[in-house]
């Protein structure tokens, strides 16, 4: 009897592990797979972003403002990244064999019902360097209404795309974006958008079907008559808001949030929780964060 109970318990443990296993959204021949970013990887993701996103060839605006040298600015960035990751809709790039994190794509669902609220455009930031970056991205995104332009009621917004330096320029960034599109399609979310800050990533996004909705050139963005982002790198002229309407993906007719679903799939007859997938404003976090290196 004890043996049977032990066997049953072992089978339940195996089943539970299978249920908890992350979905795989793609693989590349160089030995990298794309899977759900799980919470036990969050600390690794933060370390990767500090080393490979805020510095080196990482995100242009943060590097230009030297956010990494300002503890308060870095802490505010990390705080908001942790909030974005908690939606459990982001993707990890993982090295096969070692299971080491080599990249992340962080994104959340944006709802038109939340967008229409007054406070959905309120961004509370404290550190002056971080605030400067957020204000710039607000200017890039502010003229754009993704919902009306793409005729959708919700979309996935990409906040960050980052890779370890030695994994760049190998096509992994493009495949990571493809994985994000696959995840979006699986969730019946018909569009995906983000602010892309480098010419290389803008080219990749264009190849995948993204279109520029608005762009601000770095050299034309001035504060008190001075250029703000001066260390942008060769060929990187501006930050562009880009979006892609995914073909053959239709939204449910009624958008009411199913709280138990990872993708917040809408179920008829259920009440909408306006704060569940707001993309930042409900918790007073900045919504305008760039996508970076490939």
UniProtKB/TrEMBL annotation:
GO molecular-function terms, A-Z: N-acetyltransferase activity
Region of interest: Disordered: 270-294
InterPro entries: Acyl_CoA_acyltransferase (IPR016181)
Name of this protein: N-acetyltransferase domain-containing protein
Organism the protein comes from: Mythimna separata (Oriental armyworm)
High-level lineage: Eukaryota, Metazoa, Ecdysozoa, Arthropoda, Hexapoda
């Amino acid at each position: 009897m004890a043996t049977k109970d032990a066997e049953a318990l072992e089978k339940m443990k195996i089943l539970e592990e299978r249920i908890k296993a992350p979905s795989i959204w793609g693989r590349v021949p160089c030995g990298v797979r794309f899977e759900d970013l799980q919470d036990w990887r969050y600390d690794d993701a933060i370390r990767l972003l500090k080393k490979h996103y805020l510095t080196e060839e990482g995100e242009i605006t943060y590097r230009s403002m030297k956010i990494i040298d300002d503890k308060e600015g870095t802490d505010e960035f990390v705080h908001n990244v942790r909030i974005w990751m908690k939606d459990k809709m982001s993707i990890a790039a993982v090295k096969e064999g070692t299971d080491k994190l080599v990249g992340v794509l962080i994104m959340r669902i944006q709802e038109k019902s939340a967008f229409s609220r007054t406070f959905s455009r309120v961004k509370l930031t404290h550190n002056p360097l971080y605030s400067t970056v957020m204000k710039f991205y607000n200017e890039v995104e502010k003229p754009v209404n993704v919902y009306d332009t793409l005729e959708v009621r919700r979309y996935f917004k990409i906040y960050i795309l980052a890779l370890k330096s030695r994994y760049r320029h190998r096509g992994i960034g493009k495949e990571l974006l493809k994985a994000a599109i696959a995840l979006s399609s699986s969730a019946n979310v018909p569009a995906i958008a983000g602010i892309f800050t480098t010419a290389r990533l803008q080219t990749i996004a264009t190849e995948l079907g993204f279109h520029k909705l608005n762009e601000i050139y770095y050299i034309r963005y001035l504060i008190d008559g001075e250029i703000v982002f001066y260390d942008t790198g060769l060929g990187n002229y501006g930050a562009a808001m880009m979006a892609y309407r995914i073909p053959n993906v239709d939204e449910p007719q009624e958008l009411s949030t199913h709280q138990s679903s990872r993708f917040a799939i809408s179920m008829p007859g259920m009440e909408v929780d306006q704060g569940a997938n707001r993309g930042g404003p409900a918790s007073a976090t900045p919504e305008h964060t760039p996508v970076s290196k490939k």
